[in-house]
C-alpha cells in the first residue's frame, strides 16, 4: 500500500458511532413524549373541609367566618370569585332559599328533615337553579327514602328480627323515620339550611347582610367541589356543635323522648340496609345513612 494513503476507519468504530446516534434519537423522542403527557392531578387524596367541626363553639365559628369574609381580598383580575358556605338562620323551603340567596350563583344546597329527637340524614343536593333544581333533588331523595322504608319494613318482618325485640324495634323505627323523610321531601319541606355559592368578595359580603342568612364562610382555598366536605351549623345549634343522642328511637312515631337535646346531630352513624350495610345494633342511633 502506498505510504501517502490514509488508513481506513475500522468497522467497529463505525458501529459504535451508529449505536450512539440511535441512543440519542431514542432519548429525544422520550423527552418529547413526556412533555406531551398531561400533568397528573396533584389534588388526589386532598380533602378541603369547610364549616364547623364537632366540639367547636358556634359563636367562635361565626366570628371567625365573619372576620375572614371581611378580610377577603379582591382579586387583581376578574374571575368567577371564591367559593363560600352560606348557613341560614332557619330551615327554609326551596323558594325561601332562593329569596335569601338572591342572584348569587349557587352550586348546591345542604338539607335535612328537622324531626324532633331524630338524627335524620344530611343530604347535599346539586343545584345551579334555585329553587327548581332543589325541588327536583328533593323528589329524588324522597324516592330513595321510600325504598329505604320498604327495605326496613321487610327486614322487620324477617324471622331474625322477629326473634330479637331490640333489632325489630330498630327496623320499625328506621322505617317510620324514612317514611316521614320521604313525605317531607316530596312536599318541598322547609329543610334547606345551607348553600354552597361562588361570587366576588364584595358580593359575598353583601350576601352576608341579606335577611335569613346567618353567616357566610368564605373558602378561597377550595379548588374542587367533589373533594370538599361541608359541615354548616344547624339552625338550632347555638353553643357547641355536637351530635346528641337519638332520644326518640323508642318511639316509632318520631315523637321526642325523655331528655331530648335541643340540638340535632350534623351526621348520622350507621349504614342503610338498602345499600348492603350491616344492621344497627340494638340501642344504637337511628340507622338512617349519612349523605
Notes on the structure:
There is one protein chain. This protein has 291 residues and is α+β, with helices and mostly antiparallel strands. It has a domain of 197 residues. Helix content is 37%, strand content 15%. The protein is built from seven helices and seven strands; from the N terminus they run H-E-H-E-H-E-E-H-H-H-E-H-E-E. The strands form two sheets. It has a five-stranded antiparallel sheet. A two-stranded parallel ribbon has the order 1-7. Helix 4 packs antiparallel against helix 6. The C terminus is likely disordered.
How are the strands of the largest sheet arranged?
4-3-5-2-6
Based on secondary structure, the structural category is: alpha+beta
Strand content: 15-25%
Let me know the average pLDDT: 79
How many helical stretches?
7
> Overall 3D geometry?
extended
Low-confidence stretches: 34-41, 252-291
How far apart the termini lie comes to 92 Å
What is the number of E strands?
Answer: 7
Order of helices and strands: HEHEHEEHHHEHEE
Helix content: 25-40%
Q: Main β-sheet, in a few words?
A: 5 strands, antiparallel
What's the alpha carbon Rg, rounded to whole Å? Answer: 30 Å
Amino acid at each position: 500500500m502506498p505510504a501517502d494513503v490514509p488508513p481506513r476507519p475500522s468497522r467497529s468504530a463505525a458501529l459504535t458511532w451508529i449505536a450512539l446516534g440511535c441512543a440519542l434519537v431514542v432519548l429525544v423522542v422520550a423527552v418529547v413524549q413526556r412533555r406531551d403527557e398531561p400533568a397528573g392531578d396533584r389534588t388526589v387524596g386532598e380533602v378541603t373541609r369547610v364549616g364547623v367541626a364537632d366540639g367547636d363553639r358556634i359563636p367562635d365559628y361565626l366570628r371567625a367566618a365573619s372576620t375572614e369574609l371581611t378580610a377577603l381580598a379582591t382579586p387583581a383580575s376578574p374571575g368567577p370569585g371564591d367559593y363560600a358556605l352560606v348557613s341560614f338562620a332557619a330551615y327554609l323551603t326551596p323558594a325561601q332559599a332562593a329569596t335569601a340567596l338572591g342572584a348569587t350563583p349557587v352550586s348546591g344546597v345542604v338539607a335535612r328533615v328537622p324531626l324532633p329527637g331524630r338524627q335524620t340524614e344530611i343530604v347535599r343536593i346539586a343545584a345551579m337553579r334555585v329553587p327548581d333544581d332543589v325541588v327536583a333533588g328533593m323528589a329524588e331523595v324522597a324516592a330513595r327514602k321510600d325504598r329505604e322504608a320498604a327495605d326496613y319494613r321487610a327486614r322487620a318482618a324477617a324471622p331474625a328480627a322477629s326473634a330479637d325485640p331490640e333489632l325489630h324495634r330498630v327496623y320499625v323505627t328506621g322505617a317510620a323515620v324514612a317514611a316521614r323523610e320521604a313525605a317531607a321531601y316530596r312536599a318541598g319541606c322547609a329543610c334547606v339550611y345551607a348553600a354552597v355559592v361562588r361570587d366576588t368578595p364584595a358580593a359575598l359580603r353583601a350576601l352576608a347582610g341579606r335577611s335569613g342568612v346567618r353567616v357566610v364562610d368564605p373558602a378561597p382555598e377550595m379548588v374542587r367541589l367533589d373533594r370538599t366536605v361541608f359541615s354548616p351549623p344547624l339552625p338550632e345549634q347555638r353553643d357547641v356543635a355536637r351530635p346528641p343522642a337519638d332520644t326518640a328511637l323508642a318511639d316509632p312515631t318520631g315523637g321526642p323522648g325523655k331528655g331530648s337535646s335541643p340540638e340535632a346531630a350534623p351526621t348520622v352513624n350507621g349504614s342503610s340496609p338498602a345499600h348492603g350495610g350491616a344492621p344497627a345494633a340494638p340501642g344504637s342511633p337511628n340507622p338512617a345513612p349519612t349523605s
